[in-house]
Amino acid sequence: MAKENTLRVAVAGCHRMLLRDLTHHNFAAAFRAISETEIVGVFDYGAETRAEFVTCWQDVWGDIPTFGNYEHMLKEIKPDILCIATRQTMHADQIEGAAAAGVRGILCDKPLATTLTEMDRIISACADIPLCFGLDRRWSLPYRHLRRDMSDLIGTITSLVAYGLPNTINHGCHWYDALLGLLGDPEPLWVSGLIDHGDSDDERRKLDPPARAQIGMDNGVVAYITMDGGKGPSFQITGKKGHLSILSDATHAHLCREDTYQSLSLPTDKDPWPTGPAMVRDLVQAIKTGGRTACDINHVRRATEIGFAIHHSSKQGGAKIALSDVDRSLRVESYPWGNE
């Protein structure tokens, strides 16, 4: 039974929450870190997975009710918060069902959907309830620091290059959201890009290959993104007062301005996955205040549309495609995830 004054959480898809470690995708550990929440029900198709989840967390939340039927869980548990960690092929139906059941907030793992039609359904369902989408860099201390100080460091931004794009949809949404945040969250208007299918036998690459692309913003800035570069996102940003290099996922940054070059001191996240609890805390605050989260439906829309626009553009030989004209039925299959 949930404690008084806590928000009741139901989890959909728990196969990456079977350890107590606070690591990426272990949202159970993230909810445990926030005292205002308590997991009170779990859906997963795997009976053994459900049992293993209960055993793992029994001393924290007791004998958590588990379900092999998602709709039955919503009806029986009536949660305040739904945490969705299933394959994105299931997200639209599950989020619409949760909204109809009266949940007060949704935390959803990435990627969002397999078509923009599915994305549109999700955004519509979350019009009146906060959505917290798991793009970590919205809550990451070094990225928050850089976004805050960007204007002071290099002035008005004129261009950005992002490196290391590993695929276009599954992880690509992290890259697009990070670059948009660094640019001050302009509205992307058009995309021109080419998918790189390569000659690899890698099945995951065949499902969701990387790409090189240009992204035009409503403020006139053009961002360039490429699969080239090392692992993890890096950025070269040019402004009217200087140049900023953000390397190895914001573990290092260097500023060049006039004839001076200096390394910047960035704050560090000391915990193993600090953005997980930060997401949960943000969602709790949004529910309590009637607000939205740091990565809500507008951020979700932009980060999702760009990836599908690159696919659409590539099918037309790299043509410049307005985001409003992207084929909303274009389907990009997801990686096998579990909970299928």
The low-confidence parts are none
Which percent range fits the helix content?
25-40%
Overall tally of domains:
2
| Run of helices and strands | EHEHEHEHEHEHEHEHEEEEEEHHE
Please give the number of β-strands.
Answer: 15
Secondary structural class: alpha/beta
Number of helices: 10
Rg of Cα set: 20 Å
Q: How would you describe this structure to a colleague?
A:
- The chain has 340 residues and is of the alpha/beta class.
- The protein folds into two domains: 7-136 and 275-294, NAD(P)-binding Rossmann-like Domain (Rossmann fold, 3-Layer(aba) Sandwich), CATH 3.40.50; 140-268 and 303-325, Dihydrodipicolinate Reductase, domain 2 (2-Layer Sandwich), CATH 3.30.360.
- It is built from ten helices and 15 strands.
- It has helices at 27-32, 47-61, 70-77, 91-101, 116-125, 141-154, 172-182, 203-207, 275-289, 297-315; strands at residues 7-12, 37-43, 66-67, 81-84, 105-108, 131-133, 157-163, 188-195, 211-217, 222-225, 234-239, 242-247, 252-257, 260-263, 321-322.
- The radius of gyration is 20 Å and the shape is globular.
- The model has no long low-confidence stretch (mean pLDDT 95).
Describe how the helices and strands are arranged:
Layout: E1 7-12, H1 27-32, E2 37-43, H2 47-61, E3 66-67, H3 70-77, E4 81-84, H4 91-101, E5 105-108, H5 116-125, E6 131-133, H6 141-154, E7 157-163, H7 172-182, E8 188-195, H8 203-207, E9 211-217, E10 222-225, E11 234-239, E12 242-247, E13 252-257, E14 260-263, H9 275-289, H10 297-315, E15 321-322
Parallel strand pairs: 1-2, 1-4, 2-3, 4-5, 5-6, 7-10
Antiparallel strand pairs: 7-11, 8-9, 8-15, 9-10, 11-12, 12-13, 13-14
Helix pairs in contact: 3-4, 4-5, 5-10, 7-10
